[in-house]
Amino acid sequence: MTILVTGSTGTVGSEVTRHLAAAGQQVRALTRSPETADFPPGVTPVKGELTDIDSLRAALDGASGLFLLSAVSQDELTGTLIALDLAHRAGIRNLVYLSVIHADSYAAPPHFAAKAAAERVIADLDLPTTILRPGYYMQNDAWEKDRILTEGVYGPPVGKKAVLTVDTRDLAEVAARALLRRQESTDSLPRETLDVVAPEVLTGDTIAAIWAETIARPVSYGGNDLDAFETQMRSFMPGWMAYDLRLMMRSFQVDGMTATSGADHDLHSLLGRPMRSYREFARQTAQLWED
Ligand SMILES: NC(=O)c1ccc[n+]([C@@H]2O[C@H](COP(=O)([O-])OP(=O)(O)OC[C@H]3O[C@@H](n4cnc5c(N)ncnc54)[C@H](OP(=O)(O)O)[C@@H]3O)[C@@H](O)[C@H]2O)c1
Questions:
Q1: What's the confidence (pLDDT) of residue 228?
Q2: What pTM was computed for the model?
Q3: Is the distance from the beta carbon of residue 128 to the nearest atom of ligand 1 less than 6 Å?
Q4: CA 187 to ligand 1 center in whole angstroms
Q5: CB of 195 closer than 6 A to ligand 1?
């Protein structure tokens, strides 16, 4: 049985690919650049992308499982909805879709709207799916090295209400385990939605305090300045993406985040261990910064 992994060269998809290959699954890894991709033994690189219908049809042919991750792009909505329909027509029996926390309630950020639409299509097509709704990736904050160490500022304007985070290593393992559970089950498992978040509820101030404790130096929260955030993002990404992320941060600030009750328990039983904490991520990252 073969599982197709999309987003396979990215942060989460590369780890999902590694877990599935280590579990002895036949994995096809979709990438736009198979010639430069570096996959573990047993993984077959497949050239393609979600908006290239012919490549996706061929990649899905004969596969029984799909890990669907759509990069934040201007055609995320188009690529994702096409991929879901092609997966349905190809008879995929085992789907894990990477959505985002509060996909249904944060209306403004375009990449959240794309995921809300995808979740609706999954329900309409009654696809046998585990929908993963991860919180804010802890690994985003590895990019904050200079501001934290040199200015003593935690920059991302995540707000003062509540932010839920996830270590992408845990997210990938949850995704792989959910795929394997479905793949190995003789029954068709029901559709489910899991919030994938570490158990701590954080804010900009509490994240700054964790960094201060970790590096034993003062670190303060940079505040809720969305103009400054957008300007900074525009220095290394297109304007539309910086604005999408601005809208996301505004939603964090205005609405905060809440995980569904029982998320902790479900994740623990899937992984057989608790999710990694932000504190643990900060400690490991600070160690890497020192090396
Ligand atoms: N960052 C967060 O805090 C966060 C939180 C929750 C959810 N998410 C969701 O997580 C997903 C991103 O996961 P990730 O960080 O693992 O992805 P990533 O590292 O950005 O990788 C995505 C992969 O998708 C492929 N791709 C195909 N079309 C692309 C395009 N037009 N632009 C860029 N890449 C494209 C690329 O592979 P090839 O070049 O090999 O084709 C790339 O390696 C998004 O859906 C995002 O909304 C993110």
A1: 97
A2: 0.98
A3: no
A4: 31
A5: no
Q: Is the CB of 241 under 6 A from ligand 1?
A: no
CA angle 120, 121, 127 (to 5 degrees): 110
CA nearest ligand 1 atom 14, residue: 11
In this prediction, residue 186 has a pLDDT band, given cuts at 50, 70 and 90, of confident
Residues 6+ apart with CB under 8 A from 102: 112, 133, 251, 255, 257
What pLDDT does 237 receive? 98
- Measured in angstroms, how far is the CA atom of residue 7 from the centroid of ligand 1? 6
Contact (Cβ atoms closer than 8 angstroms) between residue 164 and residue 135? yes
The residue nearest atom 29 of ligand 1, judged by CA position, is: 71
CA-proximal residue: ligand 1, atom 17 (nearest): 10
Enumerate the domain spans of the chain.
2-134+168-196+259-275
Question: In this predicted model, what pLDDT tens digit does every residue of 240-284 receive, in sequence order?
Answer: 999 999 999 999 999 999 999 999 999 999 999 999 999 999 999
The letter for the amino acid at 139 is Q
Ligand 1 mean position to 212 CA, how many Å?
Answer: 30
Amino acid at 158: V
What pLDDT digit, counting tens, does each position of 200-213 carry?
Answer: 999 999 999 999 99
Architecture of the CATH domain 2-134+168-196+259-275: 3-Layer(aba) Sandwich (3.40)
Smallest CA separation from ligand 1 atom 19, residue: 10
Q: Decide whether any atom of ligand 1 lies within 6 Å of the 70 Cβ.
A: yes
Nearest in space to 2 (alpha carbons), one of 48, 58, 47, 61:
61
Q: Rounded to an integer, what distance in angstroms lies between the CA atom of residue 244 and that of residue 267?
A: 29
pLDDT at 124 > cutoff 90: yes
